[in-house]
Amino acid sequence: MDCGDCALVDIAYVCPMSQCPKNQRNGACGGSYERWCEVYPNEQKCIWVQAYERLKAYSEEAKLAETIVPPCNWDLWQTSSWLNFYLGRDHTAKRLGRKTAPAEKCTEGLWRNRSER
What we know:
Layout: H1 16-19, H2 47-56, H3 81-86, H4 91-95, H5 103-116
C-alpha cells in the first residue's frame, strides 16, 4: 500500500492501513470484543491483538507501549514509504534521527546513477 508513512515497524509488522478497517495506528479502537475486530466480528482478529500475540511469543509484548505512533502523514499518501523513510520524511525516520535529504541532491544522485548504468 502506498500510505507513504509506514507503521509496520511500530505494530509488529502488522499493517494498520491494509489490515484494520479503521486504520488504527496507535492502539485498538475500543470496539474490539474478545480479540475480534468490531467491523468483522468472528472473522478477523484486531490487528493489535495480532501484534500482541506475535510479540508475546518472544516475550517482547512491552514493545507495543514503547512509542506513540503518530497519525498518518497524509501529505505522503500515495507515495513510496521506503523512499520517504530513506529521505527522512516519515515518522520512523524522524524518530530514528534520519535527516531529511535535500530533494535536489537526491534527484541529481538518482539521475547520475541511471546514466552510469
